[in-house]
Design a protein that fits this description.
binds protoporphyrin IX containing FE, Catalase HpII,  Chain A, domain 1, heme, Catalase, signal, alpha+beta, about 30% helix, Hemocyanin, N-terminal domain, Catalase_sf
Length: about 500
């Protein structure tokens, strides 16, 4: 090619690049088809005083898109805050699990969503409410979601009670306002909630920042190793920032000062380069050890007292997502999203959760929600799930079934779920060894004097809204049964008859 021709070609390429560059970060507004909008301030009208024209397709598209901006909010945990980060293991636990997220030397990207539970999407972040601590690990074996909260236990132990628990604690079906009277109408019939209520009304239940709280997986899960042996495991995120909460006397001022305290605190820290960290600890039990306790270790209302914790890694958050809707709102966490080496235990609550999350997400976000960038695994997805609204999975080929001699989808699975011995018949019965009150008392007695007083102040504040006498006395009897001093102080603070509280507590059987 001559020099002249060469120069001509180069100048053509340069001109094309300039044109492309200027159109791609065009300051110009476009419609959804990419064509220029032109005038975005004046609708097309029939003359100076006539009506707006149907042919103004930009106006129509703009209004239509606006009209469809909202999707259903999460049925619980609607108010949330997301952040990106990474998880780095710190110990070799290959004797316990084949999950590669724990292989020393790996670094796994994560997305974390913190939340409150009962409030609506725009509700204040300072509420007497557990805090969601949901972690999505984008591992090389697919996504693992550890969907936990900031407390080590839960209110109830059977998924069949969850919708009722939520109805009673969410804003009233009549007024749209949360009502302690309804909440305690439920709890008066759920003595297993005594421990969780005690923690919720303590300072641990009122963190002043997402950075200053721990997180827990709550349930027991199974770790499965390369020999197909399993152990039961509980997860605990320990805040490197330390735990800090609001005392009852400081709560009104804090809500008044900033409704969005938790988000502003977290994003403020991230933007300042002050990356918060949590160390991950586990407790481990062999299947043969489950019966050694006087409670059921697969009951999510119980902590595993006396079982040592060991550190296995560190989570660091370092980035504010740049689009709230496409990350925090469209993120979908589910306890059922596990990876080889991690499996569900037989915990009755966890078993219900195994179904509920992906189900609600198909309703909230649509059948193909796993293809959204925030939810998409960082490894290829290879299966014959197909089509459906808004599918962009890009699966190829006409062999959309299996087995087949025509494609190479694995027909010799390398991975099977672990074998667990089972016993008994089908049944509908409460678990044995409920032990509803003892751990609440142990927790109460562990608190320093000031925190005990604050707990009584906070809890009696809500119990004083209970108008139904039987419910009020039932609640007081549970706390009295947990610890006589605790129950006595609550009875005084709610102007209750202590003799009646005691005689009800005497009838409660701890078994
Ligand atoms: C059977 C009991 C439970 C059921 C049926 C249930 C159901 C749900 C549902 C339907 C959602 C909304 C999910 C979405 O729209 O993406 C949700 C969110 C959530 N749940 Fe549960 N839940 C249960 C118990 C628990 C427990 C025990 C914990 C804590 C260990 C928990 C922690 C969370 C968290 C953190 C979120 C928010 C996840 C996010 O940030 O998107 N839930 N739950």
């Amino acid at each position: 090619m001559s020099n002249t021709a060469n120069r001509f070609l180069q100048s053509m390429i340069a001109a094309a690049c300039v044109a492309l560059a200027s159109s791609s970060h065009a300051a110009e507004l476009t419609r959804d088809n990419g064509s220029p909008v032109g005038d975005n301030q004046n609708s097309q009208t029939a003359g100076p005083n006539g009506p707006v024209l149907l042919q103004d397709s930009h106006l129509i598209e703009k209004l239509q898109r606006f009209d469809r901006e909202r999707i259903p909010e999460r049925v619980v945990h609607a108010r949330g805050t997301g952040a990106f980060g990474e998880f780095v293991p710190s110990a070799d636990i290959s004797d316990l699990t084949t999950a590669k997220v724990f292989t020393p030397g790996t670094k796994t990207p994560v997305f974390v969503r913190f939340s409150t539970v009962m409030g609506y999407r725009g509700s204040p972040e300072q509420a007497r409410d557990p805090r969601g601590f949901a972690v999505k690990f984008y591992t090389e074996q697919g996504n693992w979601d550890l969907v936990g909260i900031n407390l080590p236990i839960f209110f109830i132990r059977d998924a069949i009670k969850f919708p009722d628990f939520v109805h009673a604690n969410k804003p009233s079906a009549v007024t749209g306002v949360q009502d302690a009277n309804l909440a305690f109408d439920f709890f008066a019939h759920a003595p297993e909630a005594t421990s969780m209520l005690t923690r919720l009304y303590s300072i641990e239940g009122m963190p002043d920042s997402y950075r200053n709280m721990d997180g827990y997986g709550v349930h027991a899960f199974k770790f499965v190793n390369a020999d197909g042996k399993y152990t039961y495991v509980k997860f605990h995120w320990k805040s490197a920032q330390g735990m800090h909460g609001l005392r009852p006397k400081d709560i009104p001022g804090s809500i008044g000062a900033d409704w969005n305290l938790m988000t502003n605190d977290l994003y403020g820290a991230l933007k300042a380069g002050n990356a918060p960290k949590w160390d991950l600890y586990i407790q481990v039990l062999k299947p043969s050890e489950l019966d050694a306790f006087d409670f059921n270790p697969l009951d999510d209302t119980k902590v595993w007292t006396g079982v040592p914790e060991r550190k296995i890694g560190t989570l660091t958050l370092n980035r504010v997502p740049d689009n709230y809707f496409e990350s925090t709102e469209e993120s979908a966490f589910a306890p059922s999203r596990m990876v080889p080496g991690i499996e569900p235990s037989e915990d009755r609550m966890l078993q219900g959760r195994m179904f509920s999350y992906a189900d609600t997400q198909m309703y909230r976000l649509g059948a193909n929600f796993n293809q959204l960038p925030i939810n998409r695994p960082r490894v290829p997805v290879t299966n014959n799930n197909q089509d459906g609204a808004m599918n962009f999975g890009d699966r190829k080929g006409e062999v959309n079934y299996e087995p087949s001699a025509l494609n190479e989808l694995a027909q010799n699975p390398r991975y099977k779920s672990v074998q667990t011995p089972l016993a008994g018949t089908t049944q509908q019965a409460a678990i044995r060894k409920t032990l509803n009150f003892r751990q609440a008392g142990e927790y109460y007695r562990m608190l320093p004097a000031q925190e005990r007083q604050d707990l009584v102040t906070a809890l009696s504040g809500d119990l004083n809204h209970v108008t139904n006498d039987a419910n009020k006395y039932a609640m007081l009897s549970y706390f009295y049964k947990a610890d006589a001093d605790y129950g006595t102080r609550l009875a005084r603070a709610t102007h209750a008859d202590l003799t009646r509280v005691k005689s009800l507590a005497d009838k409660l059987v701890e078994n």
